[in-house]
Amino acid sequence: MLVVMSSQATKEQIDQVILAIQRMKLHPHPMPGPTRTAIGITGNNSAIDARSLEVLPGVEDLVRVTKPYKLASREMHAADTFVRVPHATIGPGTFTVIAGPCSVENEEMILRTAEFLRSHSVNLLRAGAFKPRSSPYAFQGLGEEGLDILAKVRKQTGIGIVTELMDTENANAVEEVADIIQIGTRNMQNFSLLKRVGLARKPVLLKRGMAATLEEWLMAAEYVMAGGNYDVILCERGVRTFSDHSRNTLDLSVVPPVKALSHLPILVDPSHGTGKRDYVPPMALAALAAGADGLLLEVHPEPERALSDGAQSLDFANFERLLTSLRKLAEPLGRTIS
Ligand code: PEP
Ligand code: MN
Fold first, then answer.
1. Which H or E element spans position 228?
2. Looking at the predicted structure, is the pLDDT value of residue 47 above 90?
3. pTM (predicted TM-score)
4. Whose CA is nearest to atom 10 of ligand 1?
5. Is residue 196 within 6 Å of ligand 1 at its C-beta?
6. Which domain holds residue 106?
7. Whether the Cβ atoms of residue 17 and residue 3 lie closer than 8 Å to each other
8. Is 335 exposed, middle or buried (0-12, 13-18, 19+ CB in 10 A)?
9. How much is the pLDDT for 46?
């Protein structure tokens, strides 16, 4: 349910409604808008008794939200969400490129990549310290040592850090270093992890589960938002299909429905989506044309020597070429690459 306050409602009247919702043992989510405040209500297992709310001063309308996801829906929150981090605002209008190697391998390669990205006005570096690998014998990431490297390079270069959190145990350590916390495809429905990042004070990049429907994905976002963290960025990274010509099937057709049903920004990851570096640039351009809000790209100084995902990583020269093409395509689309 959404309580729409009148444009003349006072702060006291808004506070009264919030209090009334809390007395009903439900959770109020105030959403100030340019002309009026709306207050979303979650936490009910059955229909809310609207009568006690509609009589309160300043209440203009009560709107039932029909979708199972509430806070993530456009029904409850019509305006686009912009997620703000130092040096970047992720949302419609701009097109945010986030790039970096799959894993933190050592300090030298992270520093080199960060300096390269900064010199191209790319302000967010993504690299994993904790890696979810299909094989227990594959490189698992440097763990806390990897986080220390990210923290050091962040301080040295000013670049923002996006890094994956795999379990609640490491939540404090990752939250400390990350400007954006990544939740990987395999954890999209790890509900205890989602609840934990719902309490975090950093935005969450929520990758789509590799076999998740759009509704399941938005319900996962809802878990994070229900905890009070409204800064969720969705990321399409390919789904499992019968196709075997690429690592996954990049579902670009999910972008318009996400935009229709949700106010959250959506990025596209053509690296995991295709698994092959030659296929990354065309799908990156297609993601821009499809209306995504940005990209997550794997870039490595020496992809042939990468400890993970080298086959889908662009080298610096290919990344530069792609940036040039993105900038050319962005202009007629009225977008700016940031
Ligand atoms: C990654 O981003 O390196 C990664 C492991 O991604 P995903 O969770 O999409 O497989
Ligand atoms: Mn990877």
1. none
2. no
3. 0.97
4. 185
5. no
6. 83-337
7. yes
8. buried
9. 85
